[in-house]
Amino acid sequence: MPELPEVEALARFLDERVTGQIVGRVYPVAVHALKTYDPPVTALEGQAVAGVGRHGKFLDLTVGDAHLVLHLARAGWVRWSEKLPALPPKPGKGPLALRLLLAEPAGTGLDVTEAGTQKHLAVYVVRDPLDVPGVARVGPDPFDPAFTLDAFSALLKGAGQQRRQIKGVLRDQSVIAGIGNAYSDEILHAARMSPFKPAGNLTPDEVTGLYAAIGDTLAEAVERSRGLPLKDLKAEKKSGLRVHGRKGEPCPVCGDTIREVSFSDSSLQYCPTCQTGGRPLADRRLSRLLK
């Protein structure tokens, strides 16, 4: 699933190419992905792109007085091309969900696609990004200057957070925007912290270390993506991960074997030596440290 670093890289890549350009045509190919009807997608046509930004994991193209907001879900992506066909794409069972063609040069534009059979990609055309329910709920962004150590500490002490496992807190978009399953694993490994430690049990030094790990991990991931073509961003993400998705491989820090805890629809990876005092986590839902 694209997380903050990948969506940030997408936003920067597209901002350099489409800002100031006029939208020629917009084709919503997968109608189920379109979550709004007013204004219609045709309202974007003939309008200039004012900029491309992000709200957590949501990509936001400002077009005229409207916003084209995309949530790429687990298997969505954006593909940039200078050779798109002029003929309207035909609806079908393929991965194409939406095509946006610029007025010029001819053939220049982007395709929004979604792989797999489970379709969760969401496309919104709204007058205000806050009209998108997911955007309205997002918490502070780790790259926002207001996301200070004090602000982070206050979040962890907030109502309902102290008893929650820190892995879940980091992934909760209403608490912190943009961090998902992969980068929460990476952040906790960098902070040398168990994913199941209650947020309320963190010492001041642990809070400081976790805060630093959030900033460093995300900033490093964005920097690795700088200048890469969109088609290479997903592969770069995988190559840059130290523990997530690397079950059975040696930890790059201590050499211990990376372990996994599986759930019904996801899994997490961690290093016992770096994060849990050498003790493996039980591989079952609501896992606890083995005694």
From TrEMBL:
Database matches in InterPro entries: FPG_cat, FPG_N, H2TH_FPG, Ribosomal_uS13-like_H2TH, Znf_DNA_glyclase/AP_lyase, Znf_FPG/IleRS
Domain FPG-type positions: 242-276
Protein name in UniProt: Fpg/Nei family DNA glycosylase
Segments crossing the lipid bilayer: none
Signal peptide: none
Cofactor: Zn(2+)
Zinc-finger as UniProt keyword: yes
PROSITE patterns with a match to the protein in the record: FPG_CAT (PS51068), ZF_FPG_2 (PS51066)
Reactions this protein catalyses: Hydrolysis of DNA containing ring-opened 7-methylguanine residues, releasing 2,6-diamino-4-hydroxy-5-(N-methyl)formamidopyrimidine
Organism whose genome encodes this protein: Actinacidiphila acididurans
Keyword DNA repair: yes
